[in-house]
Structures are given as structure tokens and as C-alpha cells.
Specification:
Layout (H helix, E strand, L loop, with lengths): L1 H19 L7 E3 L3 H9 L3 E3 L1 E3 L9 E2 L2 E2 L3 H13 L2 E4 L17 H15 L5 E3 L18 H4 L19 E3 L5 H12 L3 E2 L6 H13 L5
Parallel strand pairs: 1-2, 3-6, 6-9
Antiparallel strand pairs: 4-5, 7-8
Helix pairs in contact: 3-6, 6-7
Length: 219
């Protein structure tokens, strides 16, 4: 889906150019480096930076904590993404994967995405109580058999056993940055891409930021 969307963004740019009189005449330009982006912005045009936000980048899902990718997959896909112009990315979105745990979602939305995590990975989020309420992950609602959402049909979508009962908030996903995740971040740095730690679990995000700071990486 990422490659299809990148292709279509370039098609849209060509269409905009055609309406404005020809190549590079339109208001929107997609450029792979900050110098060209600044030049376009200085002309009063929209400088587009292609970004990626998916739950299993590089094919790096996990099944019962077993990675579904390796370092070769990460290098191959990052090279491909770089060639098509992607310059910003996250390494998770809604589900735990082979790179990191996820921050999750709160409330009944969290119940649905936690169920999605079960079907994608074979397990629910491993949420445990953590002491720092200012630095914690999201708290999904525990659905009971008599809950109104069940009577409204959500039960047909939920995994067997519905969702686990978590301890008192605040909660932290115990899955953090994995060795494959750290490797992916190093590869992102090598390509001078912008790394976005959004959606990572607290433990994963802290480890990622420590890695970036240790390398004095500004991106």
C-alpha cells in the first residue's frame, strides 16, 4: 500500500503540473532532500515530504513474539522506500511488531485495536502497572459479556476470551524496542531519514530516543 500511494502521489503531482502548464509548473513538489524542499517553499509552493505510517513496516510483523522479518528484509525495504522518495517514517502504528511494542489506544477503541493485535500477533498487549502516570501507555477498556458494545455486535469481532483484565492505571506495554528495531533505526539514520517515534510503547520510545541521542542524530 505504501508503494501504491507513493506512485499515486507522483501521478497527482503530474496532474497538477499539467493543469498549470507543464512539468514543475504546479503548486506542489515532492523532493527527496531538505535543500530542494526549502527552495520550493521559498517559491511559495507546497514542499511535500513523503512519510510512512503502518503497523508492520518492512514486513516486520511478529507471531507469538517470533519475528516475521530479518535484517536483510529491513535493508531491502528501506532501500526501496528511499528510492521512491520516502524520507520520514514510524516503525509501528496500531500493533506490536518485530521492531517494537505499541502504545495502544484508550477506551473502547483500544479494545478493538487490542483485538486486532491478537489476530495479527497471537497475543494481546502486555500491559502492566507502571508508576509514572505522566509517561505511560494507553488503557483499553475491558469488555464484559453484559457490556453494551457486546449487545451491539462487537462480540462477533472479538477474540475468544474477549480482552484481558489489566491492573490499575497507569499502564505500560512491557514490549519495548527489540534488537531488530534498534537495527532498523540505525539503518534509518544511515540513510538520513526522519525517524518518528510516535505510537511506540513508552519503553520502546525511550530506548529509541536514547539510541538517537547517543548518535547525536538530529532527524
Amino acid at each position: 500500500s505504501v508503494y501504491l500511494q507513493a506512485r499515486d502521489i507522483y501521478k497527482m503531482q503530474d496532474y497538477i503540473d499539467a493543469q498549470a502548464g507543464g512539468p514543475a509548473k504546479g503548486f506542489s513538489r515532492t523532493f527527496p532532500n531538505p535543500y530542494e524542499a526549502r527552495r520550493v517553499a521559498n517559491q511559495g509552493k507546497l514542499a511535500v515530504v513523503l512519510g510512512m505510517e503502518v503497523s508492520e513496516p518492512f514486513g516486520c510483523g511478529e507471531r507469538n513474539y517470533v519475528p516475521q522479518c530479518n535484517r536483510t528484509d529491513i535493508v531491502r525495504e528501506l532501500d526501496h522506500l528511499h528510492r521512491v522518495g520516502v524520507r520520514q517514517l514510524e516503525i509501528t502504528n496500531k500493533f506490536d511488531n518485530a521492531l517494537t511494542g505499541v502504545a495502544g489506544d484508550s477506551g473502547t477503541t483500544g479494545t478493538i485495536t487490542n483485538t486486532g493485535n491478537f489476530y495479527a500477533t497471537g497475543h494481546f498487549w502486555d500491559m502492566e502497572h507502571c508508576d509514572d502516570g505522566e509517561n505511560s501507555d494507553k488503557s483499553p477498556t475491558t469488555i464484559h459479556n453484559d457490556d453494551a458494545l457486546i449487545s451491539n455486535g462487537l462480540g462477533a469481532l472479538l477474540a475468544p476470551g474477549i480482552t484481558p483484565i489489566y491492573p490499575a492505571e497507569p499502564l505500560c506495554n512491557q514490549r519495548g524496542l527489540t534488537d531488530l528495531g534498534a537495527y532498523a533505526i540505525r539503518q534509518i539514520m544511515d540513510r538520513k531519514m526522519i525517524f518518528d517515534p510516535d505510537h511506540m510503547s513508552v519503553y520502546g520510545r525511550d530506548a529509541a530516543l536514547h539510541l538517537l541521542e547517543a548518535n547525536d542524530y538530529p532527524g
